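Exercise 3.2. Students should predict the tertiary structure of the chain below and write it as structure tokens, then compare their answer with the key that follows.

Predict this chain's 3D structure.
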Amino acid sequence: MRRLLPAILSLILIFGCASYLFLNHKKAEPEPERSAAYIASADTSVMIYYREDKLLYEYMELIRGTEVTDRNIEIEVNDGEFMFTQIELDGHVDNEGNPAVYYIPSDALRDSVDDVVLEKTRYVRTPVTVYADPDSCRISSFLKKGTELNITGYAGLREDGTVEMYRVGNEGSEGYVYSKYLTTDEDSAYADYTQTASVHAGREYTFDLYGGHTENLDWYPVDKPQLASGPVLDDARAMYISAYALNPDYIQDYIDLALASGVNAMVVDIKDGVLAYTSDTASSLSPSSYASALYTDETFGSSIRMIQDAGLYVIGRIVVFNDSNYAADHPEECIVSDVTDQLWPSAYSRNCWYYNAALAVESVEKFGFNEIQFDYVRFPETAYEMSESESTDSRNTYNEEKAQAIQNFCFYVCDKVHEAGAYVSIDVFGECVEQYVTAYGQYWPAISNVADVISGMPYTDHFGSEKDTWSHPYTTVYEWAVKAALRQTEIKTPAIVRTWITGYDTPNWNPYMTYGSAQLIDQAQALVDSGLTGGFIPWHGSSDYYKYSSYSDVWSYNYQREQSIR
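Answer key:
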């Protein structure tokens, strides 16, 4: 017996040491009740472990937010250096058919799914709008590139564990921001997308136009969405319909003409001077607009449904900053200057942003528009003169350059309209294809990088009166389109180019030009020859049915890129 005692003691010692390498159990106690818990992390996933031979081995990663069963049994590892908790996963059993037991770091469990996002700090990579709540367009504040954010919560946990929006608690900027515009550290927030940024750096006009500087714009690639409603129209043969022409008594005439002419889309006014329908948004945010409404919701909706029932892609057009009704209601949001008496809501005004975005979202939700087109996304034509004047107050709350405000507006409306289920197009002056930021804040690549569709307006009679550009529609549009096509190559995520072409006569210069099929086909062919194949929209402000009829073959013409340029 004495000879067996050392062997017995050795076995006890070996067993005790082996157990200690893994865990130190306390005295056995009745097993606590199981409860629901959720995976929490400062990252998108957490590793869980299984036990074998009293050691822990990696098993799999669980996405944060995943619900598990907490066995409420905690163990120490490495003499208390780490704490692990036993969990069970739905449907997982061991070899004996009992619920399989796994181990997870104890600090990776929370009782509520609302508490599973553990990151505390993020940095602004792309300037962000701060929203008062995650489900509306209402703006709380605005934060610039590089700002350190204090994360206090979230809204919208995706299946992959990423967050849709963070709740931030910065002083004076409490609210929600989209996570896609943030990064984990300050260095990466300032590390611009250098390959693209270097292309645009230093582009200036011969003198300062006060529109801003290209190096201060955001060049990070923007993922363009594929919405559940269907793809964005990338070869539009569109017809413009003014609010007045939407009258149900004769909208069918336009629809019949469109279908007979090869039209595949209609651009219809929601707001341009007058409001097309009695919008709830306008009733509270712009009573003067509401009072100007042409139709009830029911009447307007009836016309839109007729267009949709014809199988046409429907684009709702909203004139943004050139809005005399909103200006009359909110003079405090307008630019003040001795240069002009015109009341023009400032493109810096977040309240004006909100009104137009809320109107867009309401229109999509009520009437099912495929796309919202924002026009007059700019400062007024007198922006240069106003910038020169010391009397001008542009209401620049966040100390932005004009081009920054325009691009930031594009980010804002794209986010909110996409959530509503529609695409976004932005109208721009023809001038903004040049290699400088315009006085009114438009610069083609900065807008194309963000929007789904960009619609330039190279109207042939808008290039000045000293040179006859209107008598040569092909050449005029082609020379412009080549520049636009080049600007498209200077960004990683360009928009579709869908161009407004001259669809009206040009009587203001000599010689007078009547625009018919030949002149419109020339313009559309010039776009194709330059490589811009996203389509076109003839502009005729009054939507004259008989004028459209006179050049109806522009929509059905078989455009092929020509080998030689005329």
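Discussion points: Residues 1-27 have pLDDT under 50 and may be disordered. The chain is about 30% helix and 25% strand.
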